[in-house]
């Protein structure tokens, strides 16, 4: 089937690595926050742990993009996943030594996402070297499928295994997933550095200059940043609070709801590809951002685990409209030697601003009902899409 899409064995290998790696990311996120709630019931602490975990992408994102353009991209990905495996395997050892605390978990999250800041730009920038231009949309659609598959399988395994094992013990299994990813990455062809030379400091901000010269990229970065600043904190920090305090659910309920992000995203993948072909990437991206926000509104009143799970599944239909479309648009209009730096900016806008959003959500949730937070961000985030209609160049991209 993949060969009929014009995709090479290299893309299949990268897909397999991505599925294992995304399962690890998704499972780590579930276990990290639930383990934190087990050690401390403070919402402020929970928000701080989440914020510190996502902060490295803001700190190292631009450097990660430069590394993707200056160093062999396969090597960058292997080093990143090997580091993440080491982080996960170390947490059960800290627990056995009796020194695991919420702040030790935060340090583990910080280290893991620091490695991610180098992995993600290298992965997305490597795709145009593995497939011809005409196969980019198909390759991105297939590779982006690894994200919802990870969201589905990682939390689903957590939901099953948390019935018999504690969250800290399961971190060892997450480390094994990253080891599997390293194995698949070693099957990829060696991808030499696209640009030769040292990683000089002046090049770190090269992505900002590239984005500043193209109005389409400027709008893409701005609306991505604002949308994620609004919505990611409630998604990351608000969900476990909603499950524990409003729904009175347990760890398995939380993991199950997290897995529902994948169900909608998997269903939405073919829809996103069809819409891209019919309407163009700018319009699809604008519609996806609007739906990404407004579909959170039912969380303002839904009060059952089933109702929240269905809401999350419907919400996630819009995710491929954003991720697949955004990735393909960047690859189409950005010069190959500069892809790593531009993707690093996107990672900063998506993952990096999650750190700020998570910290703010933790503080707000200690003062304001979490349902009210979900309702407010649903309305505010949905406005990011219509605002982008103001740019003709972006609409027609």
Question: What this model shows, in words?
Answer:
- This protein is mostly helical.
- The chain is built from 17 helices and no strands.
- The chain is globular and about 50 Å long.
Secondary structure elements and pairings:
Layout: H1 9-39, H2 43-70, H3 73-96, H4 102-130, H5 136-144, H6 146-161, H7 167-185, H8 206-213, H9 215-246, H10 251-279, H11 281-294, H12 305-315, H13 319-333, H14 339-365, H15 370-382, H16 384-388, H17 392-395
Helix pairs in contact: 1-2, 1-4, 1-6, 1-7, 2-4, 2-9, 2-14, 3-4, 3-7, 4-14, 5-10, 5-13, 6-10, 8-9, 8-14, 9-10, 9-14, 9-15, 10-11, 10-12, 10-13, 11-13, 11-15
CATH class: Mainly Alpha
Main beta sheet: strand number and arrangement?
Answer: none
CATH superfamily: MFS general substrate transporter like domains
Task: Catalogue the unreliable spans.
Answer: 1-5, 196-202
Distance between the termini: 30 Å
Task: Kindly summarize this structure in a few lines.
The protein has 397 residues and is mainly alpha-helical. It contains 17 helices and no strands.
Defining traits:
single chain, 397 residues, mainly alpha, Growth Hormone, Chain: A, 79% helix, 0% strand, globular, disordered N terminus
């Amino acid at each position: 089937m993949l060969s009929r899409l014009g995709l090479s064995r290299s893309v299949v290998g990268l897909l397999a690595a991505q599925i294992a790696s995304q399962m690890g990311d998704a499972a780590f996120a579930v276990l990290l926050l639930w383990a934190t709630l087990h050690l401390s019931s403070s919402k402020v602490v929970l928000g701080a742990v989440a914020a510190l975990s996502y902060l490295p992408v803001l700190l190292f994102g631009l450097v990660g993009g430069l590394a993707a353009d200056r160093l062999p991209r396969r090597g960058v990905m292997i080093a990143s996943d090997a580091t993440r495996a080491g982080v996960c395997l170390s947490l059960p050892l800290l627990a056995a030594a009796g020194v695991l605390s919420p702040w030790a978990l935060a340090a583990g999250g910080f280290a893991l996402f620091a490695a991610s800041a180098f992995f993600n730009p290298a992965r997305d920038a490597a795709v145009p070297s593995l497939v011809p231009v005409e196969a980019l949309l198909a390759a991105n659609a297939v590779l982006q499928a690894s994200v919802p598959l990870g969201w589905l399988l990682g939390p689903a395994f957590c939901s099953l295994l948390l019935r018999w094992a504690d969250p800290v013990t399961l971190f060892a299994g997450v480390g094994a997933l990253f080891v599997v990813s390293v194995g698949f990455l070693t099957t990829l062809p060696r991808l030499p550095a696209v640009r030769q030379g040292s990683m000089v400091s002046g090049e770190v901000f090269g992505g900002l200059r590239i984005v500043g010269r193209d109005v389409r990229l400027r709008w893409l970065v701005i609306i991505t940043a604002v949308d994620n600043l609004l919505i990611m904190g409630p998604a990351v920090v608000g969900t476990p609070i909603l499950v524990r305090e409003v729904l009175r659910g347990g760890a398995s309920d939380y993991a199950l709801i997290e897995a529902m992000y994948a169900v909608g995203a998997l269903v939405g993948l073919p829809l996103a590809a069809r819409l891209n072909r019919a309407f163009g990437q700018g319009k699809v991206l604008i519609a996806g951002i609007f739906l990404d926000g407004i579909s959170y509104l039912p969380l303002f009143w839904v009060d059952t685990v089933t109702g929240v799970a269905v809401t999350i599944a419907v919400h996630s239909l819009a995710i491929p409209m954003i991720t697949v479309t955004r990735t393909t648009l960047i690859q189409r209009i950005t010069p190959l030697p500069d892809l790593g730096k531009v993707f690093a900016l996107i990672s900063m806008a998506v993952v990096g601003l999650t750190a700020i959003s998570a910290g703010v959500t933790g503080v707000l949730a200690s003062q304001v009902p979490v349902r009210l937070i979900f309702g407010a961000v649903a309305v505010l985030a949905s406005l990011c899409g219509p605002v982008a209609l103001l740019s003709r160049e972006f609409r027609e991209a």
